C-alpha cells in the first residue's frame, strides 16, 4: 500500500450487524530538513552598563542559527461495527495506530557583545543593512530524539431514539530515546458524552474528556526532555440547527461553557530566548458562542464570540498570547440572478483584546480591531476569488515579551485564487 492509499472491505449480516475494515497510512512517510538563521534586537547599546542607553538609537543584535532534521512515519488501522441491542443502535469503532518520530536539532549563538563584534550593531534611525556577520563557531546539539508511540482505541456511539451516548477510551505507549537517555510513558485517556436532540432542532449536550500528548524537544541546552502534556476537560452546551425554519433559511448556532486543566504546558523560557519550559498546571475556563446563517443562497452571516480566562498555576499569571475576548463577524451577499449573477462580496470585522507577551505578565499590548473583505465570482465550473485581511492596513503591535522584543501584527494581505469545480 502506497502512502495515502486505503485498503477497505465490508461485511454485512442480516441488516443487524456490519463490519468495515479501514487501513490508512495517516500521513505516511514524512521528512523535513531546515537550516535557519535569524537576526534579533537585544536592546540599546549600554557600554557602561549603568542601565542608561548610550544614544537611544544604536541597538545590539544577535544571530541565532538553527538546524533541524525530522523523519516521521505514521499508520492508522481501524474497524467499524454497526449493530443493534434492542432499541439501541450502536456504531462501534476499534483501532490501532503507530507513529515513529525522529528529530535532530542544533543551534548556535553570536551577538554584538559575545563574541564581541560578531554581529554589527544597528542605527535604527539610519540603518545600514548587508554588513556581514561572523557566524558562530560552535553548533550545539539541542535534541537527538527517537520517539515511538502506539495507541489502541475504542469508541461506542449509542443512539436510543433522540438520545445519543458516546464512550471512548484510548491506551498509549510511548518509548523515547533522547541523546542516549531512554524513558517510557503510558497513559489511558477517555471521552464520555451525552446529547439529546429535540424535534425542534435544539440539542443540549454535556461531555467530559481527558488527554495525553507526548511533547518533543527539551529544556534549554543540556536540559531534560519534556514530559507529556495531560489534561482534563468538562464542557456543556446547546446547539440548534433550525430544521423547522423555512427551507431557504439555514442556520447553525451553538453555545458552550467549558473548564480545562492541563499539566506540563509549554511556555516561553524567561531566561533563554526561543526556548520553552513546562509551567506545571494551567487552568482555562471559557465561553464560546457562534451563529452561522445562510438566507436564500444570497446572504451569509457568521458571528462568533469567545471569552477565555486562563491561569498558570505555577506563576499565578495568565497565559501569554491568549486574549480574554475575541469577536468576529462577517456578512456576505451573492447575486443569484440578473447581469450580476455569480458575483459576491463580503465584509468582516475582528476584535482581539489585549494580550500579555511574557509569562510574568509584565508586558501587555492593547487590543486591536481589524477589517477584512472578500470578492468572488462563481460559474458552474469555476470560482474566482480575491480576499484581503486587515484591509485598511492598520499598524498595531501584536505582542511584546520584553522591552526589546515586540512584534507588529500582520499587515494588509491580499490573496487571489482560482478554483476548478468537478
Show the helix and strand layout:
Blueprint: E1 6-13, E2 17-36, E3 39-44, E4 58-63, E5 66-85, E6 88-107, E7 110-111, E8 122-123, E9 140-160, E10 163-178, E11 181-196, E12 202-213, E13 229-240, E14 249-263, E15 266-268, E16 276-278, E17 281-295, E18 299-312, E19 325-334, E20 343-352, E21 355-356, E22 364-365, E23 368-378, E24 382-389, E25 397-402, E26 405-408, E27 413-420
Antiparallel strand pairs: 1-2, 2-5, 3-4, 4-7, 4-8, 5-6, 6-9, 9-10, 10-11, 11-12, 12-13, 13-14, 14-17, 15-16, 17-18, 18-19, 19-20, 20-23, 21-22, 23-24, 24-27, 25-26
Please give a structural write-up:
The chain is mainly β and 422 residues long. The protein contains no helices and 27 strands. A hairpin with a 2-residue loop joins strand 10 and strand 11. It has a 17-stranded antiparallel β-sheet, with no helix packed on it. Strands 3, 4, 7 and 8 form a 4-stranded antiparallel β-sheet that branches. A two-stranded antiparallel sheet has the order 15-16. The two termini are 27 Å apart.
Amino acid at each position: 500500500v502506497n502512502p495515502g492509499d486505503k485498503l477497505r472491505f465490508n461485511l454485512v449480516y442480516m441488516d443487524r450487524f456490519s463490519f468495515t475494515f479501514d487501513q490508512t497510512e495517516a500521513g505516511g512517510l514524512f521528512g523535513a530538513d531546515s537550516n535557519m538563521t535569524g537576526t534579533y534586537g537585544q536592546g540599546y547599546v549600554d557600554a557602561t552598563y549603568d542601565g542608561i542607553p548610550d544614544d537611544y538609537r544604536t541597538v545590539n543584535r544577535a544571530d541565532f542559527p538553527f538546524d533541524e532534521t525530522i523523519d516521521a512515519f505514521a499508520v492508522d488501522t481501524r474497524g467499524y461495527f454497526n449493530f443493534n441491542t434492542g432499541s439501541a443502535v450502536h456504531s462501534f469503532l476499534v483501532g490501532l495506530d503507530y507513529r515513529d518520530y525522529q528529530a535532530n536539532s542544533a543551534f548556535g549563538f553570536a551577538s554584538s557583545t559575545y563574541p564581541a563584534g560578531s554581529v554589527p550593531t544597528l542605527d535604527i534611525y539610519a540603518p545600514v543593512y548587508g554588513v556581514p556577520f561572523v557566524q558562530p563557531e560552535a553548533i550545539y546539539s539541542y535534541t537527538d530524539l527517537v520517539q515511538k508511540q502506539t495507541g489502541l482505541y475504542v469508541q461506542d456511539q449509542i443512539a436510543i431514539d433522540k438520545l445519543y451516548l458516546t464512550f471512548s477510551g484510548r491506551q498509549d505507549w510511548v518509548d523515547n530515546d533522547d541523546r542516549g537517555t531512554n524513558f517510557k510513558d503510558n497513559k489511558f485517556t477517555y471521552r464520555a458524552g451525552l446529547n439529546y436532540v429535540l424535534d425542534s432542532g435544539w440539542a443540549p449536550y454535556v461531555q467530559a474528556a481527558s488527554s495525553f500528548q507526548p511533547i518533543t524537544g527539551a529544556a534549554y541546552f543540556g536540559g531534560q526532555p519534556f514530559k507529556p502534556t495531560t489534561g482534563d476537560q468538562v464542557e456543556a452546551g446547546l446547539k440548534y440547527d433550525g430544521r423547522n425554519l423555512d427551507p431557504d433559511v439555514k442556520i447553525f448556532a451553538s453555545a458552550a461553557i467549558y473548564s480545562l486543566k492541563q499539566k506540563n504546558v509549554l511556555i516561553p523560557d524567561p531566561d533563554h530566548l526561543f526556548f520553552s519550559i513546562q509551567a506545571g498546571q494551567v487552568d482555562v475556563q471559557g465561553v464560546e458562542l457562534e451563529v452561522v446563517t445562510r438566507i436564500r443562497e444570497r446572504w451569509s452571516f457568521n458571528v462568533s464570540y469567545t471569552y477565555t480566562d486562563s491561569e498558570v498555576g505555577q506563576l499565578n499569571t495568565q497565559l501569554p498570547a491568549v486574549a480574554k475576548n475575541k469577536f468576529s463577524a462577517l456578512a456576505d451577499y451573492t447575486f443569484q440572478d440578473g447581469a450580476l449573477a455569480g458575483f459576491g462580496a463580503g465584509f468582516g470585522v475582528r476584535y482581539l483584546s489585549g494580550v500579555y507577551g511574557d509569562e510574568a505578565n509584565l508586558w501587555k499590548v492593547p487590543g486591536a480591531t481589524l477589517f477584512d473583505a472578500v470578492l468572488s465570482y462563481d460559474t458552474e465550473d469555476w470560482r474566482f476569488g480575491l480576499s484581503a485581511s486587515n484591509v485598511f492596513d492598520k499598524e498595531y503591535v501584536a505582542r511584546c515579551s520584553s522591552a526589546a522584543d515586540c512584534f507588529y501584527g500582520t499587515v494588509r494581505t491580499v490573496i487571489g485564487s482560482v478554483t476548478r469545480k468537478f
